[in-house]
Write a structure and sequence with these properties.
7 helices, 144 residues, 43% helix
Length: 144
């Protein structure tokens, strides 16, 4: 990861205001980095913070999968995903796949405000960082 991080920002409907409030509070830190978001969330953040946000499709229309693909392709460095644990999502399988990609590719992941606060204020945010990547292809061949 370079010094300037590529940050994915996603929030489910009932968590959008939470993410907007968090992003506004941390706008001075976020403006140092490159921002990405799913359709609606990315648009709301761009408008609220007056910052450029690269936007993917809306989550239910494939945006979660696009973000997951960007993670797999090494185009995102960390993910702030305020998901809603109390509401069933019609695209729940996509959400699970996205979270899996964040773990498989070992990118920092925050799903709530406290974790996002710890992540965004880490000294590692302002310096290059080399992620450790597991070769799952080789690991799956190993006997346990």
């Amino acid at each position: 990861m370079d010094k300037k991080k590529r940050i994915g920002l996603i929030a489910h409907d009932y968590r959008k205001l939470d993410l907007l409030d968090w992003a506004e509070f941390n706008s001075d830190l976020l403006k140092k980095h490159e921002l990405f978001g799913t359709g609606t969330t990315g648009g709301l953040i761009a408008k609220k913070l007056d910052l450029p946000v690269h936007r993917f499709k809306s989550g239910p229309l494939g945006g979660d999968l696009q973000i997951g693909a960007a993670i797999a392709e090494g185009k995102l460095d960390l993910l702030i995903f305020f998901w809603d644990p109390l509401q069933a999502q019609p695209h729940d399988v996509d959400v699970k796949a996205l979270l899996r990609m964040a773990i498989v590719y070992n990118i920092p992941l925050a799903c709530d405000r406290s974790s996002a606060d710890f992540l965004i204020t880490s000294p590692l945010m302002d310096e290059p960082y080399e992620r450790y990547l597991v070769d799952y292809g080789e690991r799956l061949k190993e006997e346990i």
